[in-house]
Amino acid sequence: RTDFILFTRGQPVVVRTMVGSGGPVGLAEEVQRTTLAAQVELPGTALGLLTVCGPVGDLAGGWGGAVVELAAEATPSIAASLCAEAASSSRLNLLPDEWRQRRRAAQRRQRWMRAGLAAAAVYLLALVVLLAAAGWRRAQVNGLRAEKQKLDPAYRAARQLHSELLAMQAQLDDKYSALEMLREVSTLLPPNVKLSAFHFRRDDSLTLKGQADSAQSVYTLVERLQQAGLFREVKTAGGGVRSDPGSGLTRFEVTASLASAVGKTGGPAWR
Question: Which member of 70, 175, 218, 249 has the greatest number of CB atoms within 10 A?
Fold first, then answer.
């Protein structure tokens, strides 16, 4: 009995058994038939090592080579033949093709699962960093608010001191005092103009009432007040300029806004 085992990529694909010994010619014919059968049954498959096991005796020397291997000992089992082939191959896989496909699919699933876990870990890390940054920013804002609340009383006290300082400066500045205004107006009066009333509001306005010999004298007074530099605006008010038929005099009422009122209302404010 002689067994013929043909391997392809470490896997047995053809197993044939010949009963009896046909000598070298019979062995050669059987090798040819085995190879031909493999080529017909497995078209396009690269054939590997062909192992011939049986009582070949002295014929073993004439059948050695890279394609056909002869074994002179007794017919080995399939496992022994596979072990002989595995010794000359890089890898021997005896699993069915379906099982190998399942294993590859499972390996792909494991790789995708690892990739998904890695992506989830990166996402969680980024989320933790964002939350930490938001918490740190919120803590900063709360700290600034607390600091502002601590400084509010000092700020209000400074505002109050600034207001008091402005009031004291206005009191100390006699340029716009009532006496100074009366003195300035007295020097600006034309000869034929007489005052009958002098109303002064500090840092606000000055109201003059009186009589003149003519309306031209009143307009001259208004012009002089405008050019004095002490008043922001000078205009006639109340009844304006009117003639008195009984006395033949011209009565007038003039209102002048003080220049100091600009600093009080429109000047630079405390910031």
Answer: 218
Question: How far is Cα 38 from Cα 6, in angstroms, rounded to an integer?
Answer: 8
In this structure, what are the phi and psi dihedrals at residue 224, rounded to the nearest 5 degrees? -65, -40
Q: What angle do CA 183, 187, 193 make, to 5 degrees?
A: 110
Question: pLDDT tens digits, residue range 163-187?
Answer: 888 777 666 655 667 788 888 888 8
pLDDT tens-digit profile of 128-174? 999 999 999 999 999 999 998 898 998 889 989 988 887 776 666 55
Task: Mention every residue, 6+ apart, whose C-beta is less than 8 A from residue 158.
Answer: 270
Q: What is the rounded distance in angstroms from the CA atom of residue 230 to the CA atom of residue 175? A: 9
As a whole number of angstroms, the distance between CA 130 and CA 135 comes to 9
Alpha-carbon distance of 30 to 51, in angstroms, equals: 12
Q: How many residues does the chain have?
A: 271
Residue 267 gets which letter from DSSP? S
207 bridge partner residues: 199, 255
Q: Which helix (H) or strand (E) holds 126?
A: helix 97-172
Residue 64 burial (10 A CB sphere; 0-12, 13-18, 19+)? exposed
Q: How many whole angstroms from its chain centre is CA 76?
A: 73
pTM of the predicted model over 0.70: no
